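thought: fold this chain, then report.
action: predict
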Amino acid sequence: MENYNKIVDGWFSEICPMWPGVALSIKIKEVLYSKRSKFQQIDLYQTSNFGKMLVLDGIIQLTEPDEFAYHEMLAHVPMFAHPNPENILVVGGGDGGVLREVGRHECVKHIDFCEIDEEVIKVAKEFLPDIACGFDDPRVDIHIGDGNSFVHAQKNKYDVVIVDSSDPIGPGENLFERPFYEGLKAALRPNGIIATQGESFFLHKDCVINLVKITRELFPVQAYSYILVPTYPGGHIGVCLGSLGPELKKPNRTIPDDFQNQLKYYNSDMHKSSFVLPQFTKKMFKGI
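observation:
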């Protein structure tokens, strides 16, 4: 797709082949950054009503007013489902939001972070410091490279692996295929948990069904959660989870009051309710 950063009459519109016939438009006040990296087009906008907005290859990654919903749930659902997560891997998410949330857990001893595009990290640090603050955590080791290759080089190492991927087009395509999930499973320690960006059950049915099928075949415990995010197409996004033991649909640790007071979206009720799926989605998953 060309003209990723084209603004028409002051409006940016996300138009992607993954959801033909649908566009999400946001009014732009100023273009703060626009450059093509080795891997993708990176745009950072000041919007009129949604603060700063990060866009990769024409696809909205986050806006400041609602980024907390996605980052908190993608991180804390698997983290609190695990009884004692000490060693963590985060793949993708160059904005640092998942790192910020994982870092809130005092039980964590070490976090490996793998991102293919170093330029996204640089842009986030410059323009989105409240999100990119996750990179300042001394427990974080940053690895610049392909997430698929990195995962396959790790064996029996992590308690939780979180994959904050872009859509299955461009540099993130192989992160939605079975060999990658086989690598994720092999990278886990006993009782390990994975959580991956799981697309929309309204807009990307085939992709979601494929992810659920893969994780059901590979993991003894599997579940699919979803998050309300107003500036994502359809207003929501899914999380596909697999576990080598722990129950996924409820927290396995108590959430301390001081921890809970830092959050805006995640709590124990949201954890449990995020797995309550619409009837048509249950039918989609039946018999997979």
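thought: worth noting. The mean pLDDT is 94.
final: tokens above.
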